[in-house]
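This part of the workshop introduces the protein records we will be handling. To make this concrete, we reproduce a full record directly below.
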Amino acid sequence: MTRIRHQPTAPTRAQWLASGAAIDAHRHDDHQIVYAARGVLAITTGAGSWVAPATRAIWVPAGTVHAHQAHGELELHFVGLPAADNPLGLDGPTVLSVAPLLRELILAYTRAPHDDSPERGRLRAVLLDQLRASPQQPVHLPNPTTPRLRALCDLLRADPADNRTLAALGRQVGASDRTLSRLFKADLGMSFPQWRTQLRLHHALVLLAENTPVTAVAHQCGWSSASAFIDVFRRAFGHTPGAHRP
Protein backbone atom coordinates (compact mmCIF):
# COMPACT_ATOMS: atom_id res chain seq x y z
CA MET A 1 0.00 0.00 0.00
CA THR A 2 1.43 3.40 -0.99
CA ARG A 3 2.03 5.70 1.96
CA ILE A 4 0.66 9.21 1.47
CA ARG A 5 2.85 11.85 3.06
CA HIS A 6 1.02 14.30 5.27
CA GLN A 7 2.40 17.84 5.49
CA PRO A 8 0.40 19.83 8.06
CA THR A 9 1.23 23.16 6.41
CA ALA A 10 1.72 24.10 2.77
CA PRO A 11 4.90 26.17 2.82
CA THR A 12 5.32 29.29 0.71
CA ARG A 13 8.55 28.87 -1.19
CA ALA A 14 10.30 28.56 -4.56
CA GLN A 15 11.81 25.26 -5.74
CA TRP A 16 13.58 23.95 -8.84
CA LEU A 17 12.89 20.49 -10.28
CA ALA A 18 14.87 18.82 -13.06
CA SER A 19 12.98 17.67 -16.14
CA GLY A 20 11.29 14.37 -15.37
CA ALA A 21 11.56 14.81 -11.61
CA ALA A 22 8.53 14.24 -9.42
CA ILE A 23 7.15 14.99 -5.97
CA ASP A 24 5.33 11.90 -4.70
CA ALA A 25 1.72 11.87 -3.56
CA HIS A 26 1.11 13.99 -0.46
CA ARG A 27 -1.48 16.24 1.12
CA HIS A 28 -1.58 19.44 3.13
CA ASP A 29 -3.95 20.75 5.76
CA ASP A 30 -3.68 24.11 3.96
CA HIS A 31 -4.73 25.27 0.51
CA GLN A 32 -1.93 25.74 -2.00
CA ILE A 33 -1.36 27.67 -5.21
CA VAL A 34 1.28 26.04 -7.41
CA TYR A 35 2.83 28.03 -10.23
CA ALA A 36 5.57 27.06 -12.69
CA ALA A 37 7.40 30.18 -13.85
CA ARG A 38 9.43 27.97 -16.15
CA GLY A 39 8.66 24.56 -17.64
CA VAL A 40 5.34 22.73 -17.49
CA LEU A 41 3.80 21.38 -14.30
CA ALA A 42 1.52 18.36 -14.13
CA ILE A 43 -0.51 17.65 -11.00
CA THR A 44 -2.27 14.31 -10.64
CA THR A 45 -4.98 13.26 -8.19
CA GLY A 46 -7.33 10.30 -8.10
CA ALA A 47 -9.80 12.39 -10.14
CA GLY A 48 -7.48 13.16 -13.03
CA SER A 49 -4.64 15.43 -14.08
CA TRP A 50 -4.07 19.13 -14.61
CA VAL A 51 -1.24 20.53 -16.73
CA ALA A 52 -0.11 24.14 -16.48
CA PRO A 53 2.45 26.14 -18.49
CA ALA A 54 3.78 29.51 -17.30
CA THR A 55 0.50 31.27 -18.12
CA ARG A 56 -1.43 29.09 -15.66
CA ALA A 57 -1.38 28.22 -11.95
CA ILE A 58 -3.08 25.33 -10.19
CA TRP A 59 -5.24 25.71 -7.09
CA VAL A 60 -4.95 22.66 -4.80
CA PRO A 61 -7.51 22.65 -1.96
CA ALA A 62 -6.59 21.57 1.56
CA GLY A 63 -6.60 17.80 2.07
CA THR A 64 -6.27 16.93 -1.65
CA VAL A 65 -3.86 14.03 -2.23
CA HIS A 66 -1.75 15.08 -5.20
CA ALA A 67 1.59 14.45 -6.91
CA HIS A 68 3.74 16.77 -9.04
CA GLN A 69 5.57 15.94 -12.28
CA ALA A 70 8.10 18.23 -14.00
CA HIS A 71 8.27 18.56 -17.77
CA GLY A 72 11.24 20.62 -18.81
CA GLU A 73 13.36 22.41 -16.21
CA LEU A 74 10.74 23.47 -13.67
CA GLU A 75 10.84 26.61 -11.55
CA LEU A 76 8.06 26.05 -9.04
CA HIS A 77 6.49 28.61 -6.74
CA PHE A 78 4.21 27.51 -3.90
CA VAL A 79 1.84 29.81 -2.02
CA GLY A 80 0.25 28.28 1.07
CA LEU A 81 -3.04 29.59 2.48
CA PRO A 82 -4.79 28.53 5.71
CA ALA A 83 -7.72 26.17 5.18
CA ALA A 84 -10.05 28.82 6.60
CA ASP A 85 -8.92 31.30 3.92
CA ASN A 86 -10.38 30.13 0.60
CA PRO A 87 -10.48 33.23 -1.61
CA LEU A 88 -11.78 31.26 -4.59
CA GLY A 89 -14.41 29.16 -2.84
CA LEU A 90 -13.22 26.07 -4.73
CA ASP A 91 -13.25 22.56 -3.31
CA GLY A 92 -11.40 20.83 -6.17
CA PRO A 93 -8.14 21.42 -8.08
CA THR A 94 -8.55 24.15 -10.68
CA VAL A 95 -6.33 25.74 -13.30
CA LEU A 96 -6.27 29.54 -13.17
CA SER A 97 -5.12 32.03 -15.76
CA VAL A 98 -2.02 33.97 -14.66
CA ALA A 99 -1.82 37.49 -16.04
CA PRO A 100 1.53 39.35 -15.90
CA LEU A 101 0.64 41.18 -12.67
CA LEU A 102 -0.36 37.99 -10.86
CA ARG A 103 2.82 36.29 -12.07
CA GLU A 104 4.99 39.04 -10.58
CA LEU A 105 3.03 38.98 -7.33
CA ILE A 106 3.52 35.22 -6.95
CA LEU A 107 7.24 35.51 -7.69
CA ALA A 108 7.68 38.38 -5.24
CA TYR A 109 5.64 36.72 -2.48
CA THR A 110 7.52 33.41 -2.66
CA ARG A 111 10.95 35.07 -2.78
CA ALA A 112 10.45 37.83 -0.22
CA PRO A 113 11.46 37.33 3.44
CA HIS A 114 8.75 35.26 5.09
CA ASP A 115 7.90 37.57 7.96
CA ASP A 116 4.84 39.32 9.36
CA SER A 117 5.76 42.77 8.11
CA PRO A 118 3.03 45.19 6.95
CA GLU A 119 4.65 45.23 3.49
CA ARG A 120 4.30 41.46 3.15
CA GLY A 121 0.71 41.64 4.37
CA ARG A 122 -0.15 44.19 1.68
CA LEU A 123 1.58 42.07 -0.97
CA ARG A 124 -0.50 39.06 0.10
CA ALA A 125 -3.72 41.08 0.01
CA VAL A 126 -3.10 42.23 -3.57
CA LEU A 127 -2.13 38.68 -4.59
CA LEU A 128 -5.44 37.34 -3.22
CA ASP A 129 -7.36 40.10 -5.01
CA GLN A 130 -5.73 39.11 -8.29
CA LEU A 131 -6.48 35.43 -7.66
CA ARG A 132 -10.17 36.20 -7.18
CA ALA A 133 -10.15 37.97 -10.55
CA SER A 134 -8.33 35.15 -12.37
CA PRO A 135 -10.46 33.24 -14.90
CA GLN A 136 -10.74 29.50 -14.37
CA GLN A 137 -9.43 27.39 -17.26
CA PRO A 138 -11.18 24.12 -18.29
CA VAL A 139 -8.01 22.09 -18.88
CA HIS A 140 -8.72 19.20 -16.52
CA LEU A 141 -8.22 15.71 -17.94
CA PRO A 142 -10.47 13.48 -15.81
CA ASN A 143 -9.71 9.82 -15.10
CA PRO A 144 -12.39 7.26 -16.04
CA THR A 145 -13.71 4.85 -13.43
CA THR A 146 -15.60 2.32 -15.57
CA PRO A 147 -13.44 -0.57 -16.89
CA ARG A 148 -14.32 -0.29 -20.60
CA LEU A 149 -13.82 3.47 -20.62
CA ARG A 150 -10.54 3.09 -18.74
CA ALA A 151 -9.33 0.58 -21.34
CA LEU A 152 -10.20 2.94 -24.19
CA CYS A 153 -8.57 5.95 -22.52
CA ASP A 154 -5.43 3.91 -21.84
CA LEU A 155 -5.17 3.17 -25.57
CA LEU A 156 -5.24 6.87 -26.38
CA ARG A 157 -2.86 7.83 -23.58
CA ALA A 158 -0.37 5.37 -25.07
CA ASP A 159 -0.79 6.95 -28.51
CA PRO A 160 -2.50 10.37 -28.56
CA ALA A 161 -2.11 10.44 -32.36
CA ASP A 162 -4.47 7.46 -32.72
CA ASN A 163 -7.19 8.84 -35.00
CA ARG A 164 -9.55 5.89 -34.93
CA THR A 165 -13.24 6.62 -34.53
CA LEU A 166 -15.06 5.84 -31.31
CA ALA A 167 -16.72 2.89 -33.05
CA ALA A 168 -13.36 1.43 -34.09
CA LEU A 169 -11.91 1.90 -30.61
CA GLY A 170 -15.06 0.41 -29.15
CA ARG A 171 -14.58 -2.79 -31.11
CA GLN A 172 -11.17 -3.21 -29.46
CA VAL A 173 -12.50 -2.73 -25.92
CA GLY A 174 -15.79 -4.58 -26.47
CA ALA A 175 -18.35 -1.77 -26.36
CA SER A 176 -20.50 0.06 -28.89
CA ASP A 177 -19.89 3.69 -29.73
CA ARG A 178 -23.32 4.52 -28.32
CA THR A 179 -22.45 2.93 -24.98
CA LEU A 180 -19.07 4.64 -24.88
CA SER A 181 -20.56 8.04 -25.74
CA ARG A 182 -22.96 7.66 -22.85
CA LEU A 183 -20.12 6.63 -20.51
CA PHE A 184 -18.00 9.62 -21.49
CA LYS A 185 -20.83 11.98 -20.56
CA ALA A 186 -21.83 10.14 -17.38
CA ASP A 187 -18.35 9.28 -16.06
CA LEU A 188 -16.19 12.15 -17.32
CA GLY A 189 -18.67 14.94 -17.92
CA MET A 190 -17.51 15.56 -21.48
CA SER A 191 -17.83 14.08 -24.95
CA PHE A 192 -15.30 11.76 -26.52
CA PRO A 193 -13.94 14.47 -28.90
CA GLN A 194 -13.60 16.88 -25.98
CA TRP A 195 -11.67 14.35 -23.88
CA ARG A 196 -9.38 13.41 -26.77
CA THR A 197 -8.63 17.08 -27.48
CA GLN A 198 -7.78 17.66 -23.81
CA LEU A 199 -5.49 14.63 -23.85
CA ARG A 200 -3.72 15.90 -26.95
CA LEU A 201 -3.30 19.40 -25.53
CA HIS A 202 -1.82 17.97 -22.33
CA HIS A 203 0.58 15.84 -24.35
CA ALA A 204 1.47 18.81 -26.54
CA LEU A 205 2.43 20.89 -23.49
CA VAL A 206 4.76 18.14 -22.32
CA LEU A 207 6.42 17.82 -25.74
CA LEU A 208 6.84 21.59 -26.06
CA ALA A 209 8.49 21.70 -22.62
CA GLU A 210 10.96 19.13 -23.95
CA ASN A 211 11.76 21.49 -26.86
CA THR A 212 10.10 19.33 -29.52
CA PRO A 213 9.52 21.28 -32.78
CA VAL A 214 5.95 22.50 -33.27
CA THR A 215 5.38 20.49 -36.46
CA ALA A 216 6.55 17.30 -34.74
CA VAL A 217 4.29 18.03 -31.76
CA ALA A 218 1.31 18.44 -34.09
CA HIS A 219 1.91 15.08 -35.75
CA GLN A 220 2.71 13.21 -32.52
CA CYS A 221 -0.52 14.50 -30.99
CA GLY A 222 -2.75 13.58 -33.93
CA TRP A 223 -3.42 16.87 -35.70
CA SER A 224 -3.49 16.75 -39.48
CA SER A 225 -1.28 19.81 -39.84
CA ALA A 226 0.76 22.26 -37.80
CA SER A 227 -1.72 25.03 -38.61
CA ALA A 228 -4.65 22.99 -37.25
CA PHE A 229 -2.68 22.33 -34.06
CA ILE A 230 -1.71 26.00 -33.68
CA ASP A 231 -5.34 27.07 -34.05
CA VAL A 232 -6.59 24.70 -31.33
CA PHE A 233 -3.66 25.53 -29.05
CA ARG A 234 -4.21 29.28 -29.40
CA ARG A 235 -7.91 28.97 -28.57
CA ALA A 236 -7.10 26.85 -25.49
CA PHE A 237 -4.17 28.82 -24.07
CA GLY A 238 -4.35 32.28 -25.61
CA HIS A 239 -1.01 32.13 -27.42
CA THR A 240 0.75 30.08 -30.07
CA PRO A 241 2.83 26.97 -29.33
CA GLY A 242 5.93 28.78 -30.59
CA ALA A 243 5.49 31.51 -27.96
CA HIS A 244 5.11 28.84 -25.29
CA ARG A 245 8.30 26.89 -26.01
CA PRO A 246 11.25 27.45 -23.62
